[in-house]
């Protein structure tokens, strides 16, 4: 069965539990062995496999023992900025060096100075 948005929460939990059970069997582990290795109770693992839900920490522990933790990255990948945001973040390379400007001479209180030809 494929996991889709149309599945109910319960159906989704049952599918995840069935997949977890299949991976456990493929690894050649009994419920008791996997529960012990993961540091959880056997009953907790039974609930996970039955799709009755459990704490996320318990699921992570079981996935770690089965070597499936890397799948969590695909489950909820990091959010990357869109292409426009990436372009806005890039700093344009500098094309020249700017030196501090010399201070302007102070004007008299009238605001204007007499204009003259510089010869």
Concise overview:
The protein has helices spanning 9-26, 31-38, 42-50, 56-66, 71-75, 83-89. The protein is an all-alpha fold.
* Strand runs, count: 0
Helix content: 40-55%
Uncertain regions: pLDDT < 50 for 5+ in a row?
A: none
Count of alpha/pi helices: 6
Q: Write down the Rg.
A: 33 Å
Structural class: mainly alpha
Mean residue pLDDT? 84
Gross geometry? rod-shaped
Descriptive terms for the model:
119 residues, mainly alpha
Can you put this structure into words, describing what you see?
By secondary structure, the chain is mainly alpha-helical. Helix content is 49%, strand content 0%. It is built from six helices and no strands. Helix 1 (9-26) crosses helix 3 (42-50) and helix 2 (31-38) packs across helix 4 (56-66). The chain starts with 8 loop residues before the first helix and ends in a 30-residue tail after the last helix. The mean pLDDT is 84.
Outline the secondary-structure elements.
Blueprint: H1 9-26, H2 31-38, H3 42-50, H4 56-66, H5 71-75, H6 83-89
Helix pairs in contact: 1-3, 2-3, 2-4
